């Protein structure tokens, strides 16, 4: 790593959380923090135009944490000046320098902190395997095992890891289905059946992780609701108008999954387009493609429309596709439960007892992208619709039971493994 980038990375890991805590309690400490940041920034090349792309990405991660910390602290201290314009790197403002790094990173990164920089690049590489075969790999870009945070807490590390592992599992699940919805793999084939089962196994593993997280079953301890609401979320501050701070709704594979399975009764397209402004450009394109393709339910229904009577393979595909919709419903319910448990429910309790609440930069009564509990619930309801329910209802129940028992047996033998790896080592390996 270049010396200047290394120095900034080490400072972020070793000093940023404590300096933020100090600066939250004192305007003078905030001013000292901004001055020290300027001093460190002075070591960067005045123009990033010749900085290698990987170094730019590393800087986007570290300076992303700095930028949101500065904006939050300015809000807490009611500082009227636009802190990202008054903090400078050479003769460029922090805001412009960050935007130039984004261009020079050749990654399609937006000119403000993103889901990719906080999570995908920050957390070590995640690999997803099914029965030993690699299905998805999401690269981290730093050498060591440490994860950059604002708070220095285990809760924040656990949150970023959950998002990254969830995104990698979601990617593996979607990639298994993509060739079926695009028509590259015939929906009524053995390959389609094994892809449906693989995708199901990935989604189930993701759900189990969500549930374990909500139950506090991580060996590092229980995820702290207080840290989530009053610390981590408080850095979810937009850097400018129309810029959204990073949030779950910017996780591209979740949105692609909704396109693959469908979101009936919702005007979902515009909602997705609004989110893609804060994503990487390739992610926006991925979502456009996913939106243009038919849904899994449509493809399966179309393929079975003219095949009567159904042979065993067709019944198995129908049951497997029906059941993966059920798994998707359960995953959504687990997520909705988390959002309620970690934010909406405690927020209602807090708002009736405001004494002792710290000054907030971000309103806890809604999500970072502005979603209310009702909005998240509406999404969850849309995911309860199973388009294959009626098709299955028309089949003899003994045929369904037979196919389902074979599917369950096959699913029970599938093993999904998740590995977190940083340069040279596989650091942890968790089975689900
Ligand atoms: C593991 C990965 C996660 C992914 C991929 C994810 C993804 C999403 C998505 C796509 C939405 C939009 C609503 C929806 O589609 O239902 C959302 C909303 C939300 N999620 Fe998650 N989520 C994850 C984990 C969590 C966790 C752990 C929490 C709480 C600690 C949480 C809290 C919320 C909240 C509060 C909202 C409303 C969002 C807003 O307005 O910005 N999510 N999430």
TrEMBL record:
An example Gene Ontology molecular-function term: heme binding
Family matches, as InterPro entries: Trp/Indoleamine_2_3_dOase-like
Superkingdom of this protein's organism: Bacteria
Gene Ontology biological process terms in this record: L-tryptophan catabolic process to kynurenine
Designated name of the protein: Uncharacterized protein
Highest classification ranks of the organism: Bacteria, Bacillati, Actinomycetota, Actinomycetes, Micromonosporales
